[in-house]
């Protein structure tokens, strides 16, 4: 790899593999509200919140952690205002007292909060306006979960940047990603440059998966897989990824390391690879390098799709995990390519209908497809050029899926949101 691209790949991992506590859309709302409260610096008497459709979709049914079981946009805003520590970003409500939880309920009862849809070119768009006794403030986040694009106090603009362009300007260029260079990077990267990121992903995500398997969370998808199918490594890989989601979607207060802005994607891209590494007694170095493959393959797919869409992000992460497993078990560039194409051919039709307990089931199905895609390759089987969305060349197939989800499923996304809000 060129030295420039090598450094970019390291920076991409640093930007994406960050900690978050709670589903990232409610947390983005809490972060925006917390920032707006800081800017206002006044007693709040009213709040106006505008959100894009995908925020509505992904906040509606998921429990906001550290709120005593609250759900929804207003609850996320209340959590950020009452207990948010803005400097902790996606862990903005990680430290909440019982007194603050009670205060959230009281705040929701006494402070009027207007919520309305926001027409936007960005699937992820949040605007929080707070009215105080003497001042008012407005903060907007767009493009990705922590990307503040506008700050205003008393109608004076404090900060502003273009909504659409800001995401591209704020992050390292993802168009540099491709499967060949991901493979070469995983082989040659100096692990000291990324070891801490990857070890934190292992520690955080395995801990919440264990919590999901040991206690009753959500629909207990992970537990059901193990009880029904046994502990073969292929089932354990699905179960651990699903169990992490079981816990997280139902309000577990343990942090995870995310991928492409999503905790579910971060767990799905990592946990199956971790389970396989432990089963086959792989070295620490082998696991790290396999996680690099799984994480970057996931990010590469998501680059063409976008952070939020009608296309289930678990698919990208499940296929990424399959690629990581292929690498872990000795697979070369060709093995990763075939795993990617085979897996995408199997599950690319899964829709995203918001964050909620059933995400765990979609994760299990996506991990299964990633693993099956690898074992198909091992047995000399493949889906071929011209079959559905599969094209010759892995990058062409990835591009097809990106166009399907980013452009072709826009109307599907609108219909999903309409049906969910009936």
From TrEMBL:
Any single biological process term in GO: L-cysteine catabolic process to pyruvate
Transmembrane stretches, start-end: none
Cleaved signal peptide residues: none
Alphabetized Pfam families for the sequence: SDH_alpha
Residues annotated as domain Serine dehydratase-like alpha subunit: 88-417
GO molecular function, one term: L-cysteine desulfhydrase activity
Family, as annotated: Belongs to the UPF0597 family.
Listed name of the protein: UPF0597 protein B5E75_07900
Organism this protein belongs to: Massilimicrobiota timonensis
């Amino acid at each position: 790899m060129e030295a420039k691209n090598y450094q970019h790949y390291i920076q991409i991992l640093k930007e994406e593999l960050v900690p978050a506590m709670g589903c990232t859309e409610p947390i983005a709302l809490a972060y925006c509200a917390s920032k707006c409260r800081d800017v206002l610096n006044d007693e709040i008497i009213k709040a106006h919140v505008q959100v894009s459709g995908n925020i509505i979709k992904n906040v509606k049914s998921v429990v906001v952690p550290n709120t005593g079981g609250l759900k929804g946009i207003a609850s996320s805003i209340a959590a950020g205002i009452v207990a948010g520590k803005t400097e902790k970003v996606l862990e903005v409500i990680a430290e909440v007292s019982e007194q603050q939880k009670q205060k959230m309920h009281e705040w929701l009862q006494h402070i009027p909060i207007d919520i309305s849809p926001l027409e936007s070119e960005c699937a992820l768009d949040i605007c929080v306006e707070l009215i105080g006794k003497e001042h008012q403030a407005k903060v907007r986040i767009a493009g990705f979960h922590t990307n503040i694009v506008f700050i205003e106090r008393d109608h004076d603009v404090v900060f502003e940047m273009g909504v659409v362009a800001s995401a591209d300007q704020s992050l390292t260029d993802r168009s540099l990603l491709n499967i060949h260079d991901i493979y070469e990077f995983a082989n040659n990267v100096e692990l000291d440059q990324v070891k801490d990121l990857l070890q934190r992903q292992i520690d955080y995500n395995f801990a919440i998966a264990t919590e999901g398997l040991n206690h009753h969370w959500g629909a207990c998808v992970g537990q059901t897989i193990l009880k029904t199918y046994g502990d073969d490594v292929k089932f354990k890989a699905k179960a651990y990824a699903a169990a992490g989601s079981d816990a997280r979607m139902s309000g577990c207060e343990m942090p995870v390391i995310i991928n492409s802005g999503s905790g579910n994607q971060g767990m799905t891209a990592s946990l199956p690879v971790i389970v396989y590494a432990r089963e086959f007694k792989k070295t620490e170095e082998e696991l790290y390098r396999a996680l690099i493959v799984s994480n970057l393959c996931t990010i590469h797919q998501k680059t063409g799709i976008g952070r939020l869409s009608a296309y289930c992000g678990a698919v990208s992460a499940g296929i990424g995990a399959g690629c990581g497993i292929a690498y872990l078990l000795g697979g070369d560039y060709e093995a990763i390519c075939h795993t990617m194409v085979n897996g995408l051919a199997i599950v690319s039709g899964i829709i995203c209908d918001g964050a909620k307990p059933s995400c765990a089931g979609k994760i299990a199905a996506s991990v299964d497809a990633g693993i099956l895609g690898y074992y198909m390759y091992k047995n000399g089987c493949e889906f071929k050029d011209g079959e559905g969305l599969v094209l010759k060349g892995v990058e062409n197939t990835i591009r097809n899926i990106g166009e399907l989800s980013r452009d072709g499923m826009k109307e599907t996304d609108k219909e999903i949101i309409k049906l969910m809000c009936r």
